Amino acid sequence: MHLPAASIHVFPSFLSSSSCISLLASCSVLSNWTSSQTSHANFSTKDISLLDHTSLMEQFNSTDVYDKIEEAYKMIPSRSNGRTNARSPLSFLDLFVVKYTAGDFDELNMHRDGSLISFTLPLSEEHEGGGTTFECLQDDGDDHDRVLVHGVNTDWGEVKNGTVHARAGTLVVHSGKMMHGGGKVTKNNRYVLVGFLHVESKDEDMFRLCKRLARFDAPEKRGYSAEDLLP
Hints:
The chain is an alpha+beta fold. It has helices at 17-30, 54-57, 62-73, 135-140, 204-212, 226-229; strands at residues 8-11, 47-49, 90-101, 108-111, 117-122, 128-129, 132-134, 147-149, 157-160, 163-166, 171-175, 180-182, 185-187, 189-199. The chain has one domain (4-229): Jelly Rolls (Sandwich), CATH 2.60.120. The protein is globular and about 45 Å long.
């Protein structure tokens, strides 16, 4: 079993089908998909930023995301477990919906994010292809113990040929420093909510966490020892 910070965390049914449909409908009303290379990505994407639209942010509960990520990376006790006044060490650097279209903007090359923690949350299932490809899963062959599914729902999707194909509404969290990319969409449109998160690093514990979150697809190439990866 891989350590939490070196794993890909899956939270099935994080958003309901109706919530996914509602968020997509709101994006369709705005219809201002940008395609320029912006500050949130290493590569150009076609997207709509939730941070620029209050109506979209109102449909997405940031606190729920923070709770799941804190749980996955064992940062601090969840606010739902008695820490109602605790300030999360997390904050959004960016939050946006990406639109992949077969034959147009249909894939995203392998890259590392500028954030320490990132997530993807598929909003649609009517496409073919797609998914998020991880270099570390390609290296693992058929051994996918690096993917940790939280909860009892096993119908979240699958890992195939190094690519995570998650069902709509499934939250997939990983270190932004893992090498990853968007699989090629071969039919219809694929919509994905993407989040980049900052981790507060003013205290020593959070500094160590930030260090452990660096490029875990190949830690041995970075000179890390097993002790460096321990919480």
